[in-house]
Amino acid sequence: MAKLRTFIAVETPPDVVGRALKLAKRLTRAATAAEVKWVAPENLHWTVKFLGDVDPRDLAEICRALAEAARSVAPFRMEVAGAGAFPNAARPRTLWLGAGAGGECLVSLAEAVDAAMTKIGFRREGRRYEPHLTIGRVRNGGPAQEALGELLAGNAGFEGGSMEVDEVVLFSSELRPEGPIYEALERAELTG
User: What pTM did the predictor assign?
Assistant: First the structure.
């Protein structure tokens, strides 16, 4: 039986997606030369935990553990604030939007999900969860990468609006040449 590539995430509402796309357009001038692969609007999400390849027979247990984690966290409102890059703006590789007020609740959700998944055999995360929404990935460096980093630093005060987080989703991801295709496999309502 073929394995499924899976991850757990919070979906991004359309108004926040729209603001992210506007920022991406502002960055495109430098990004074109830096060869940025922008995340498709329908794929913008806040990854909570990457599970990797799983046997479909294990999905029921994963869904039960996800529901358990969701029951321990109350719904919350989170501000989308700030823009940056990993590893840093001087050498941007992953372009992201950050979490402002309420971001600590997303950290709590990630910790609850990590603990629940660890109980059923997944590896515990080795570092603290950093809430971020990946909007693009830089494919080459050089002067264009530096220019992109400067533009990004100029948008560090980006305000992306706020979003209600009331569920967490288990997704499968099928990697294709034109980009990944995500499918929601299970939704768990936050009820803590």
Answer: 0.93
